[in-house]
């Protein structure tokens, strides 16, 4: 089920964080993780009208944001870093999220 969610993240960036969190526990999932995956599928069912839309524009303005948490993984106490880029203010073009090998004290350190 997580594989199907990973496929959907290409057009539904709103589920990336929750899907990646569930993917961390694929080797030894528990009932709690299955409940989380089912919750994501219910969310998708209720928001089926949402997705990415790229109309043709002449403007080109790139905006980027990044952030990091502090020891957000409850198991390893490692931090997760993420970034997101938009064209013309509201057209999402790329995003990323990665669990780091260390614990960051701030976004700048990440």
TrEMBL record:
Protein's name in the database: Uncharacterized mitochondrial protein AtMg00810-like
Organism: Tanacetum cinerariifolium (Dalmatian daisy)
């Amino acid at each position: 089920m997580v594989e199907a969610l990973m496929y959907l993240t290409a057009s539904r960036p709103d589920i990336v964080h929750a899907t990646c969190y569930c993917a961390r526990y694929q080797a030894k999932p528990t009932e709690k993780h299955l409940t989380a995956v089912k919750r994501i599928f219910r969310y998708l069912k209720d928001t089926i009208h949402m997705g990415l839309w790229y109309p043709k524009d002449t403007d080109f303005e790139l905006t980027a944001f990044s952030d990091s948490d502090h020891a957000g993984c409850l198991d390893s106490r490692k931090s997760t870093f993420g970034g997101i880029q938009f064209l013309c203010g509201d057209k999402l073009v790329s995003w990323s999220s990665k669990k780091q090998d260390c614990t960051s004290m701030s976004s700048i350190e990440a």
